[in-house]
Amino acid sequence: MEQINDYINSHKDRFINELIELLKIPSISADTAYSQDVLETAKAVQRSLDEAGCDNTEICETKGYPVVYGEKTIDPNLPTVLVYGHYDVQPPDPMDLWNSPPFEPVIKPTDLHPDGAIFARGACDDKGQFFMHVKAVEFMIKNNTLPCNVKFMIEGEEEVGSDSLADFLLEHKDKLDNDIILISDTGIIGNDVPSITTGLRGLSYVEVEVTGPNRDLHSGIYGGAVPNPINVLSKMIASLHDENNHITIPGFYDKVEILSDAERAEMAKAPFDLDEYKQALDIDDVYGEAGYSTSERYSIRPTLDVNGIWGGYTGEGAKTVIASQAFAKISMRLVPHQDWNEITDLFTKHFESIAPKGVKVKVTPHHGGQGYVTPIDSLGYKAASMAMEKTFGKKPVPQRTGGSIPIVALFEEVLKSKTILLGFGLDSDAIHSPNEHFGVWNFLKGIETIPYFYKFYTELQKE
Ligand code: BES
Ligand code: MN
Ligand code: MN
Questions:
Q1: Ligand 1 atom with least separation from CA of 368
Q2: Which member of 222, 257, 340, 361 has the greatest number of CB atoms within 10 A?
Q3: Angle at 116 between CA 114 and CA 119, to 5 degrees
Q4: 3-class SS at 310?
Q5: pLDDT digits (tens, 9 = 90+) for 288-304
Q6: InterPro entries given for it (predicted)?
Q7: Per-residue pLDDT tens for 87-144?
Q8: How far is the CA of 298 from the centre of ligand 1 (A)?
Q9: DSSP 321
Q10: What are the structural domains of the chain?
């Protein structure tokens, strides 16, 4: 395995150029105008698996965008690692905030990435990260050091909720059979503070619609006398949190996992600098649920956030109008034991119940998924910890993240396997935002670390 460093040194320019080619294709799953590009990306991913030396590569049809599959079996008696990632990306909007076009990757240094970072949509989430696995496996195949079997499953619908994946897992249970799932689609605390993600939040995403009068009205002639859907919606949304920023939906917290003081104290040991946090975001103060620290608020506590709100006149100048309708998109981040379908129902019932007479309310669920926590005494966690310790020179700390990867809970349910979340991004890499980037150092560090995971995992399995 030690040859990985030589291999990276001789091939790093090629690795980066190959990633750049992949980043040029705008695989935006949310926008059907890009569906050809999404399919094109699947083909490019398949080629990269072929070139890495994988066998039986395939573009597997689903109800939605295809899953790219590939494998290398060296001995059926050895363990099998299933690598999951996603080749689709978020829409790049708002375009005018990008310093360089989102699908024309450039490498520039930043404060946290003095060696340079690749700027492009998908650089960190998740093309740059799953590509580390393709390159790490290429190394192990070419150097005959692959210690166990590997399967790849790279999907194209993660950013829109992985809708087709539950059926795909059920249909391909045997093909996807594995001992452990390995995903790089999360991050580390810092380049000098390695960490392994041990928890993801669940998600319930809904859209709400409030309808008042049957048409837009003159705000002078009718104003004050009819329900204004935008006023009403604002009030309804405001009432979803109380003065302590607790969510007011009855039953919302019933199943929330309560951590012991000891567990909370253990988690509080992970390095976190509140001043740096505020400074990085240009905010004078943080905001959130009373009784919890910032890092608890975004990891072990559930949330409710408006993601978008619209209605009425938003064009240039002023127009005196009472709109007939108002809309909002709302996401709730959930913690272990909260069931996203139940929460969606609770939200719907509550939202309908608080609507004043005079408006009609409609709630449409979009997508969701369950949260996930993984133990730190498993072989997989130990192998990941040993691998990071080897390449970072420091033992990683376990950390729960606020983001969601709904497929992870489904993997456990359908394939009965645990997932190791071995990500290499930084929170400041601006995923889903303009100017997304991924550190070149992080990209290469991932390629260096992954082969050690295979080595240690296989060795631990034999003990
Ligand atoms: N890779 C992210 C999730 C993530 C990022 C987890 C950073 C932890 C740290 C993933 O691509 C993502 O964006 N997931 C969505 C959920 C999905 C259903 C749209 C999310 O968390 O909003
Ligand atoms: Mn992702
Ligand atoms: Mn994402």
A1: 18
A2: 340
A3: 135
A4: strand
A5: 999 999 999 999 999 99
A6: Bact_exopeptidase_dim_dom, Cyt/Met_Dipeptidase, Peptidase_M20, Peptidase_M20_dimer
A7: 999 999 999 999 999 999 999 999 999 999 999 999 999 999 999 999 999 999 999 9
A8: 13
A9: E
A10: 4-200+371-462 (3.40.630.10), 202-256+302-367 (3.30.70.360)
